[in-house]
Automatic annotation (TrEMBL):
It holds the Pfam family DUF294. The keyword Transmembrane does not apply. Keywords: TPR repeat. Residues 212-277 form the Protein-PII uridylyltransferase N-terminal domain. The keyword Plastid does not apply. This is Protein-PII uridylyltransferase N-terminal domain-containing protein. One of its GO terms (molecular function) is [protein-PII] uridylyltransferase activity. TPR repeats lie at residues 667-700, 710-743, 753-786, 796-829, 839-872, 882-915, 925-958, 968-1001, 1011-1044.
Amino acid sequence: MIERENLAFKTGFLVSAEASFWISQLKKLLEMCVNKNERKKRTNEKKVDYIPEGTESKEITKVMYDLGKEITKQTEVEKQATLMCDLGKEYADLAKETGEGWHFIYATALYNAALQRFKKINAENEVILADRLDNIQKQLQQLETGLLKTASKVNKEPLSKSMERYKGVLEGIRTHSKEAIYDIHTKDMLIDPVTFEMNEECQRRTIESSKCYYDTLTRKIIELHKLMIDDCISVLGRRNCRFAIIGLGSLARKEVTAWSDLESAILYDPTGKSNEEIEKLKLDFRILVHYLHLKVINLGETKINALDIPVLCDFNCKLPNGVKDNDFHDEITPQGLCFDGALPKASKIPFGRRSTKHPTKQDTLELIMTLDEMSECQFEEVSIKEGYHLSDVLLTSTLITGDESLWNEYNEKVHEILSSCSTIDIELSVGKQRGIETIKEDLKAYLTKPLTPKSFNKKMRTKHNIYRFATISINILKLLHHCRSFSPLDILDELHLKQVLSESAKIDLQLMVCMAINMRHLVYGRCGQQREMASFVTRPSRDELFAAYDHVSVRDYSPAIFRFYATLIPWTDFLLYNYCFNDISTCKHLSHYIDLNPQTTADIQKEMYMPQGVINSLESPKSNLIPNNMESQKQCFPHLSRDNINESTNERLQHEKETSAKNSDTSARLDSLGDAYASKGEFDKAIQYHNESLAMQRTIHGNHPHPNIASTLGNLGNTYHRKGEFDKAIHYHKESLAMKITIHGNHPHPNIASSLGNLGSAYFRKGEFNKAIQYHNESLAMERTIHGNHPHPNIASSLGSLGNTYHSKGEFDKAIQYHNESLAMERTIHGDHPHPDIASTLGNLGIAYNSKGEFNKAIQYHKESLAMERTIHGNHPHPGIASSLGNLGNTYDSKGEFDKAIQYHNESLAMIRTIHGNHPHPDIASTLGNLGNAYDSKGEFDKAIQYHKESLAMERTIHGDHPHPGIASSLGNLGNAYFSKGEFNKAIQYYNESLAMERTIHGNHPHPNIASALGNLGIAYDRKGEFDKAIQYHNESLAMIITIHGNHPHPDIASNLMNLGRTYCKKGDHTQGLQYYTRSLIILKQIHCDQPHPDIASLLSNIGVVCSDTGDNEKALQYYTDSLTMKRQIFGNQPHPSIAASLHNIGTFYVDKHKYADALKNFYEARDMYRKIHGNNPHPDFKVTLSAINATEQLLTRCISIMFSSMHT
């Protein structure tokens, strides 16, 4: 017997703990096996992007190569299309000269690619390009005529008419396909939305309707291919021999879609032919295939990078040595009905393979063969030399047109060879031997990137991730059990008749196959082409934002995919285990292949952002049950029985084990439910479930400290944290920490470090930054003790937490230092590979630089973060991308580019709504608030109020009557908007509501949010002219901020001092006001040193006002000028309200000095800047400047009038 290579897998099977141990060992074996396959080292050979002298050939000239290079570089569609026409003409001229079929193919493909681009321009821009379109049609007609001329033939039917016929038939097939799959999806595949079970009637209908659909669709597509081939033959003439054109691949297996490639080969009978006649026969078949290929390309669905045009994509290494491949990718031509690609690993067409780098294979391999030549590909020596793929492809075929008896003879010969004795293992047949080798390779390929719940969080390849292994694993059974059926569904029926599979096992596997194949049909139908990227997260939308997405939403298909996954996992487990430990060709199959484990379904739903689905799955009655799968375990894992143990003892131990497992599983389910409710923002329910879990854990483990109890205590702490009850969060985190210390003693442990970090985060939210830093430092120290000098994600995370805390303390340079350390470590860990942790740290750096007033640096980091998130997640909606978009919006708001800010916030909002749908979510509420802030800054106060009210309503829907920082923040934002609008009483009302809630949340404990609300009230009373009240609130706010930060310089202390200074000045006490301004300026300079900052610039302007009011005009002008200079340093040439305000202040100063011309110059500049910022929106500041201009112009006019009057007198 042959030695089998051990594999492993990454799936979940309902097995005992011991079986799970064996499976985990298999996983490790797989990782070792996979990691041994080292990638080939890339050569560092430097290649040139031109054709060197003396290396040209007829189909690779300098002109052709340069055109290929320009096509690849060109991003303008019209210019690219023109270049394609130019290259097409080069190959058309070459085809006239050589008569070589491939040159006609190249030219036809290029003209069709150009045609698709001109049609795109027409559709998008309504530009009439009739002349260009007509010219291409003429060129395509000439190419068909030229190809036929090489065979001395003529087609009387115009190309356009034949294409119209074929496209009409193809459109009818596609309409039928979409309607049929829609009916199966919506009428037959009816699945319980909670348990995801199907009743027997729906199972039967799904299988029968799918089988009927596959048969009908396959027949219709074969008829189309036959129509096109028969048309070719009617022009070229019929070959003088028996022949059969056979379909391969998905067409042969009845898995073909209405957009699939054509994979084919030609069988012929050489009986009675001389060698010379055989060569002539093969030449005629090549011309036939070229002519058919031309027709297929003219359908307009062949991407030119799928062809072997060497100056565009040099698959077959035809370029001179050392010349760079242009590596063009056709992004515009839709992929549909076309020939299989010209890549060496594809090439399942009669021309076959045109090159290979594989050492054991012959360079070319044509699939125009005699019956004996083609059937001999099943022999082991050919299979091993060529790789099993070729043998497997030629194993299953279908007749498209030609001699049916020849095709039948071929099939008989194939099965005769497969049934013969293997030369590798004499105990096996050729078929079984190959089946074993094939299952090994396919398991390895699948399990290097298995389908897990996390797979559903990103866009996925329908063909590779869902369809491929599910169907190919059934086709392998054909080899193992000598089946003669063609399609997977028929193979499963045959296996049932052979008594290999039970009725229930057959149905489970047939449903798995149907759901995989049907999803492929659904995706291609929705895309209208052969595009396989799909998403279970994205919701179907007509929004312009998603028009450019490179995937299609299949969220409505998720019930079917849960049912599919419930079979795929036990099926994969069975194959792997029996491949490794039993004889896969003779082992007994399970009685059924389905594991509708609610926890597994919930795990998938969590990744799909379906929190309600998670809850439904985990709260279903079925989730309380531990299925009795012992019969399945014994079949799959026979070595696990223990005959030497006393039966009653065994039963008792088994009962205890099952009870303990059930309780542990129930506890885990309760914690998962808690997490799901927390993700929905339903924190009370989350806490209820975590408490139930905690009670069960304590019932299981008694007073004995246990990691699971500590974990659940931590979950409670995290939930109270998110609920805004920070004292309770700290209480539970301390309990969790104490238990972990009891368990692990003085030994440093990651779980202890994690609890320390959680405590740091809770104290951070509570506003106790020094305590937060203490805990984060302890966590960091322990992580470093555990991991030593070795970089580790947990160390990087602790550094980031310290950075965030120092940021809130106002120590921005320290914050940046920690974030940079964190970033350096993450890059050491992940190298050049994009990673969410790196993207997050880049975002943290952006936030820190924003607070420092270095907006361009902040934008740079946020854009790096966004680019990395998009590299990781592609166009797939993800919270990380949405967060980066929101950060950019906030920074552009700070920078005064309000339209850009609004654009980014809208993109962020659209993405978050795509993720969470109509379900209220804190991230949606937060983004609505950001939009409100941006519109407030822009001066569109009503819009700002509308967004803040939406945000507030959502926060209240999420948190109910429970006080929460999110609600308090929305109330404060509404106060700000009404303040900006000049409705000070309404602003005070909302500020008071916000203050009351913050005090309810934080009690008597000083907190930055309480201080902020007090400060807002002070500013509102200041604007109302109630200066004493304003001073009272500012003093309260200042006292609290000093309590929080102590003597440490902090922006909030400086801000409060500035507010007090402004109010005292307005009250007429300039001395006191100037004292507060001076204290504020000292603190800001301590924080920002010599770095220009908006707060310093604003304060300089305020001091200028004091100097002006007290008659010190020279100093006033100096402060105004210094403020303006600093603002221009910060904001550059970008218009900003702060710059405009400084210009206005200088204008006012010059009015007081009666220098009206100088005043107007500054007023005009301020006016123009406000116009650039606010457009046609009548902003209050803009109105004030316009009034100042009118008044100053009148004063200047009066002065001029007086001057002229005095001159005349």
